[in-house]
Write a structure and sequence with these properties.
By secondary structure, this protein is an alpha+beta fold. Helices cover about 30% and strands about 40% of the residues.
């Protein structure tokens, strides 16, 4: 049985919330299939190193104090899970919201689709 909530919260915290690339790649290796694909609205990255580089670029584009927080538990069934999240300063207003949708295989993330909500919808 897949622990959708545990795996998707770990991905949000240990991959997208980790600014240290060395710790992030270790988390990616533990959470993602070797040939996994990260799909962002305007780009895709395949494999552990490419996913780590894509997250590095994403984090570099955000203010250094931005954090990602889950909005409730992740839910899933039949190998697919989703987690809603928000990002912004730790004690400030929410700047962006979205949803991650992951497809799992053998307990690992096979593909992750990042959906960003339209501006003004948070």
């Amino acid at each position: 049985m897949i622990d959708y909530d545990g795996l998707m919260h770990a991905n949000l915290a240990q991959v997208f919330g980790e600014r240290n690339a060395g710790r992030r790649i270790e988390a990616i290796r533990a959470l993602y299939a070797e040939d996994a694909v990260l799909y962002e609205p305007h780009a895709a990255a395949k494999g552990h190193s490419a996913i780590c580089e894509a997250v590095t670029a994403l984090l570099a584009s955000l203010p250094p104090d931005f954090v990602f927080r889950a909005v409730g538990p992740a839910v899933g069934h039949n190998g697919a899970g989703r987690l809603q999240w928000r990002s912004g300063p730790p004690n400030g207003p929410v700047a962006v919201t979205g949803t991650d949708v992951a497809l799992f295989e053998a307990g690992l993330i096979r593909s992750l689709y990042v959906f960003l909500d339209p501006a003004g919808s948070h």
